[in-house]
Design goal:
CATH class: Alpha Beta
Number of strands: 7
Number of helices: 7
Strand order of the largest sheet: 3-2-1-4-7
Helix content: 40-55%
Structural class: alpha/beta
Largest sheet: 5 strands, parallel
CATH architecture: 3-Layer(aba) Sandwich
Radius of gyration: 14 Å
Order of helices and strands: EHHEHHEHHEHEEE
Number of domains: 1
CATH superfamily: 5'-nuclease
Strand content: 15-25%
Length: about 140
């Protein structure tokens, strides 16, 4: 089955109607045929960005629990690779959550990403070679 990596920006935009990208992200999410995968650091960022109230954070957790995306846990090997990528892209810069998504792309052999971070993900490469296909267009 087709897997698409889910980044923080569109995850927040799906849940927060006040986000300027809400409609574009919602439309893409409804139209796409495939399964979304993400990482624990992305989920942590989303919960933090939604706000301090549990009532505002709860939909992010429910989204995952209802199958909106699979959360892939980090392993020692994936953490090591994330550190290598953060060092390599330190001038971009690459944050930890983004590094875990590139590692996830490498591990899952997918190049599709649902992100609002075009600058970063247009620069990052999977296995130092393959470019990402970035959605929404």
């Amino acid at each position: 089955m087709r897997e698409i990596i889910l980044d923080t920006g569109p995850f927040v935009a799906l849940l927060d109607r006040s986000e300027r990208s809400h409609l574009a992200c919602t439309a893409f999410f409804k139209e796409v045929n495939g399964r979304f995968v993400t990482t624990e650091p992305v989920l942590t960022e989303v919960v933090y960005l939604l706000g301090p109230s549990f009532a505002i954070q709860k939909p992010a957790l429910e989204f995952i629990l209802k199958g909106g995306a699979e959360v892939v846990p980090q392993t020692p090997g994936s953490l090591q690779r994330a550190m290598q990528l953060m060092e390599k892209y330190r001038d971009v810069p690459m944050d930890f959550a983004d590094a875990t998504l590139v590692v996830l792309a490498e591990e899952r052999n997918t190049s599709e990403i649902f992100t609002l971070d075009r600058r970063g993900f247009a620069t990052y490469r999977i296995h130092s070679r393959k470019a990402f296909t970035i959605y929404p267009e």
